[in-house]
Amino acid sequence: MFFNARTRRSRILIAVATAAAVVLAVAVTLAMTVTTYDHTSPRAARGKASGSVTGNVDCRKAKCVALTFDGGPSLTTPKLLDILKQDDLHATFFVQGQGHIAKYPEILRRISDEGHEIGNHTWYHEVLTDINENDARQELTRTQDAIEKITGTRPILMRPPEGRTNRKVAKICRDLGLAQVLWSVTAKDYETT
User: For the chain, percent helix, then strand, then coil, each to nearest 5?
Assistant: First the structure.
């Protein structure tokens, strides 16, 4: 039992250190290459949006970096928030319902209060392409409702578990006013657990 707890703690510390290293690398790269910039974040742009959730941003063409985190909040999230705050960086947190926002509503509130975007990562982390349409819709709506109840804001972004999507998932997202957000680079932190 002691060995398992120690191993788990070590893995959590490695994941936090990896996230911190990524944030630091991005900050250093930006500091060395950018002479001027507009301070923006998805949340800041929300007020300027037309209200429709269409189109995509290709960061390879737009020359942007989007820091995104999946699966929390958890007990390590406050440390990550401290790092982001210290470097005046914003991120998008794709949060899960059961065991996360239901367990740590105060951390979710802090994410929102500090100006980070909150996206939907489903309630039970079910692979949406593997379940029926009604269950997939429930995975998203239950999470939407919980996030809105805690933060006062309904998410406009979602990230499907494992990045698996199809026409059914796209239709549900359109119906719910959610834009699907995937990724182009991953730290593969899930391999440490």
Answer: 55, 10, 40
Give the tens place of pLDDT for each residue, 7-63: 776 676 676 666 655 555 555 444 443 433 333 344 444 444 434 444 566 767 887
Instruction: Flag whether the pTM goes above 0.85.
Output: no
Q: Which tens digits make up the pLDDT trace of 121-133?
A: 999 999 999 999 9
Closest-CA residue to 98 (of 154, 157, 53, 161): 161
Mapped onto helix, strand or coil, the DSSP state of residue 64 is coil
Enclosing domain of residue 107: 2-192
Task: Give the three-class secondary structure for 58.
Answer: coil
User: Residue 49 carries which side chain, given as an amino acid letter?
Assistant: A
Number of neighbours of residue 80 by Cβ within 10 angstroms: 22
Beta strands in the chain (DSSP E): 68-70, 92-95, 117-120, 157-158, 179-180
Edge-to-edge strand ranges of the sheet holding 157-158: 68-70, 92-95, 117-120, 157-158, 179-180
142 contacts 97 by C-beta, under 8 angstroms: yes
Domain count, the chain: 1
CATH number of 42's domain: 3.20.20.370
Identity (one letter) of the amino acid at 100?
H
Element (H, E) at 70: strand 68-70
